[in-house]
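Q: I'm writing up a methods section and want to include an example of the input and output format. Could you take the sequence below and give the corresponding predicted structure tokens, formatted cleanly so I can copy it straight into the document?
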Amino acid sequence: MLGIPLRYVLKHPLSATADLAADPFEVLTTIHEYIAEEREPRRPQCPYQHDHDWEQRLHEHIGVSWPCEVTSEFRGLWSEVIGELQAKGIRAGPESFQWWNDGDAGFVRSIWCLVRHLRPTKIVETGVAHGVTSRFILEALKRNGDGHLWSIDLPPLERHWREQVGVAVGDRFPDRWSYIKGSSRRHLPKLLSQLGEIDLFIHDSLHSERNVRFEIDRAWVTLSPKGAIVVDDIDANWGFHSFTQTFPGRGPPRRTCYFRPNIWYLLP
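A: Here is the clean output for your methods example:
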């Protein structure tokens, strides 16, 4: 993956120089994170056994009957949002944002149900891409009548992709959405300190073991007693596995629901 930003620098030296001059710390942070990811020990894919009945189990964990009414809300909105993106010539789904998946229906649906049922008021996510997940969180908060989303996102170096960041949200929800441009390493600690306590945290940024641990270690200690953490692509690295062996700052998780390649990490 390191080759992609380097190829961009070599192919667009003037743009890359302008980006570096505008925010040298962030550009260097981006390159450093890619280098750190490349240097992580090469181990076999972290094995997790997924649950085919994950949706039912998820609802059981949070004390909600299944099937639930909000799932039908999701289906109608999903067609609407995907249609809007397609009308703009943007495809959501596997490898639709650079080499990353963006807009996995199962992943987004799970977060939709968590937001609608748990009714969190302080939500933090890392990674935005086209903003499909962000859009559904914001739509769910609107239906709940309360809540705010803070999204920390380090846009790609390539300008073509940067122009597509958050397009699914657009200028909607200005009072409910705070987009924080930059790396989680730079902005997450300060944001969590300002918020004091959060109700839902979603990791969907760089899937390196180093970055996963950095984010969920810090989110964990600020999580409310009935909060939840969602980690995407847990089989992409050993970050979540190592986290469950240490439980920094508080006790171990009591409720866990696996749906490969995602995990819901719930507290009673």
